[in-house]
Design brief:
heterodimer, A: about 100 residues, alpha+beta, 4 strands, about 25% strand, B: 12 helices, about 15% strand
């Protein structure tokens, strides 16, 4: 929070922008829940060869993120966000 | 060889038809040969905005069905003799025409005209698909409201998916005094959210209501919106025209600074 924010009440146009940005993130996902489920299962299948995954804390979703780099000027691109807690690595598969 | 442009928005009531009529009028004023096609079959309106409703004999459906020649269905504008309207049918529905037929028609018309402009119906169904079928450029009209911008975003996505070469934005009905006090998104805000090239900003203007009442598009007259439409057309023609200064936004520091700098 910036210092100026304390003195300045959020304007309704700012509220509109904030709400739009949020709603467009989900609108722009061209990925159906079924497809998402398949992607998730495939990732898990590969991963579980090497590690034991905590399925309850699993979070995989499509989101928007700002690109990094001087020339792109903060454009947003779709990104796959995955938070996969790992209980422990499987050490028995070496080489 | 002319260019086929579709004017679209997703949401209804943001000013697609008014924009189409004014862009057509301004282009004709700049000596271009233009045909406007109302693709809103069943809910035609471009004819009344142009003031040509009493001259309709044949319509778009008659043309694609081969009941008449294109030239018979086209109505010459009252004021500009290089401007024509191809009206929609009022008693049919959107399925009376297919995207392939529309594509063929636009190919044919762009041999004779500098600009073929499609007025797209609201929505993303058949009427939208018909309107964009032959288009090389899309003009997306939106107002600075959450609902309209959201729908514009969806439309921009669909235009990209359909490989329309160029998509540009017109932000309609800006009220500078509301933008200034922070109660309306500015054109820049909308461009920022939609990440698309800005073609023009049109102020909310009483003159538009009067012009529509009279069926005479005001593009090119002395009103602010009339100038805005003329600027849009000059940009369509490739000129670099600065945007009208509708508002001056001041941040807190700029406001304080301006007090001291006076």
């Amino acid at each position: 929070m910036k210092l100026t924010d304390i003195f300045k009440k959020k304007t309704s146009s700012q509220a509109a922008k904030d709400r739009l940005k949020l709603v467009l993130v989900s609108d722009r996902q061209s990925c159906s829940p079924e497809l998402m489920e398949r992607i998730k299962n495939d990732i898990l299948e590969v991963l579980s060869k090497y590690a034991e995954v905590d399925q309850t804390g699993l979070d995989i979703k499509f989101t928007q993120m700002e690109t990094e780099g001087a020339d792109t000027d903060g454009k947003t691109v779709p990104a796959l966000y995955a938070n996969i807690p790992i209980r422990h690595m499987k050490h028995n598969i070496e080489g | 060889m002319g260019e086929v442009i579709v004017v679209t928005s997703g949401k209804g009531g943001v000013g697609k038809t008014t924009t189409t009529a004014n862009i057509g009028t301004a282009l004709a004023k700049l000596n271009k040969k233009v045909v406007l096609i109302d693709t809103d079959i069943g809910l035609r309106n471009l004819d009344v905005v142009m003031g040509l409703e009493n001259r309709i004999v044949y319509n778009l459906v008659d043309v694609v069905e081969g009941s008449c020649k294109v030239k018979q269905a086209m109505i010459r504008d009252k004021r500009y003799d290089t401007l024509f309207l191809l009206p929609a049918a009022q008693t049919k529905d959107k399925t009376s025409v297919t995207p392939d037929q529309m594509k063929k028609l636009s190919e044919e018309l762009k041999q004779d005209f500098d600009y073929v402009i499609m007025d797209c119906p609201a929505g993303i169904e058949q009427g939208f698909k018909n309107a964009i079928a032959g288009a090389e450029r899309a003009i997306v009209v939106t107002t600075p409201e959450v609902s309209a911008v959201r729908d514009a975003d969806r439309i921009i996505g669909l235009l990209e998916a359909n490989e329309i070469g160029k998509t540009q934005l017109v932000v309609n009905r800006i009220r500078p005094e509301m933008v200034k006090r922070g109660d309306m998104m500015s054109a820049d805000d909308v461009v920022d959210i939609l990440a698309v090239e800005l073609l023009g900003v049109v102020p909310d203007d009483e003159s538009i209501v009067i012009a529509t009442n009279n069926g005479e598009p005001l593009a090119g007259d002395n009103s602010l919106s009339g100038q805005a439409y003329m600027n849009i057309c000059r940009r369509i023609l490739g000129e670099s025209v600065p945007f009208l200064k509708l508002e001056e936004r001041k941040g807190l520091f700029a406001a304080i600074a301006s007090v001291f700098l006076r």
